Amino acid sequence: MTLVSVQVAMDILSGAIEPALLGRDEANVFHSLLEGVVIQDAAGVITANNPASEAILGLTSEQMRGLTHTDPKWGTITEDGEPCPPEHHPSSIAIETGKPVLNFTMGVHSPDGKIRWLKINSQPIYTGKASTPHMTVTSFVDITEERKRQKAL
Prior knowledge:
The chain is of the alpha+beta class. It contains five helices and seven strands.
């Protein structure tokens, strides 16, 4: 298992946020991941994302950044097809409890009107000796086709 440490640096002049990985070719690793990754602050605001997140969610970086998990654009649903309230989103739970949320399945309405099923992991991130997380790093993969195959069996 490889552990990658992520730091986030913000350019205060442009507002751009760049992920920086310690001891690696930083941006190349973040941008080459096949898993979608979004970084959210403690309020749930998306502050950074990678290209895979754009491909999976069907949104550009500009469309994603600044959105929160409470934004109705997400149109999230549970595995039962019921609306998934924002407080039940993995990043919300990780911020609230301070514990990782792993293998969470959720449907997201994409701009093309289709539902994309995601397998999601969200990690709370702490600064120094803080007792509460100041952000989350959430990764996800599209499992839509896998779900279709399983239902066909």
